[in-house]
Write a structure and sequence with these properties.
This protein is α/β, with parallel strands linked by helices. It is built from 3 helices and 7 strands; from the N terminus they run αββββαβαββ. It has a domain of 82 residues: Nucleotidyltransferase, domain 5 (2-Layer Sandwich). The N and C termini lie far apart (91 Å).
Length: 130
């Protein structure tokens, strides 16, 4: 009597469809994710403050002032261009102002004069918490 032995075949799973799905998910998440845009253009050293923290609106207009530069919405401009751009804003627009701690008072006053002249008083000064 002969015994019939069947060889067992090894069953292996094809990983190609699984790899395709993983790559499609990876591409979906890369495309769908929202990367945080750099909100500041100037490298500022903000002064310290122990006051209460306020919540900044996402739509707030950011003005940055350093010793030699001025930035409005992540682009460098001068005071004349700033005044022109701010004159187009509504009076109740929220302005977020970041001023380097080494800036001379004269430049700060110049900025505040422009804001006062245009009657923009919804102002938030950003500092570092202690």
């Amino acid at each position: 009597m002969k015994r019939l032995c069947k060889k067992r075949e090894l069953i292996s799973m094809d990983l190609t469809p699984l790899i395709d799905v993983v790559f499609l998910l990876l591409i979906f998440f890369i495309v769908a994710s929202e990367f945080k845009k750099n909100e500041t253009i100037l490298n500022l050293s903000l002064p310290n403050s122990a006051s209460k923290e306020n919540i900044v609106e996402k739509k707030a207009i950011v003005i940055e002032l350093s010793e030699k530069k001025l930035a409005y919405k992540t682009s460098e401009i001068d005071f004349v261009q700033l005044e022109q751009k701010l004159s187009l804003l509504q009076k109740d627009s929220q302005l977020t102002v970041k001023i380097d701690k080494e800036v001379k008072y004269k430049r700060v006053v110049k900025l505040l004069d422009i804001l006062n002249k245009l009657q923009l008083s919804n102002l938030l000064l950003i500092t570092k918490s202690q």
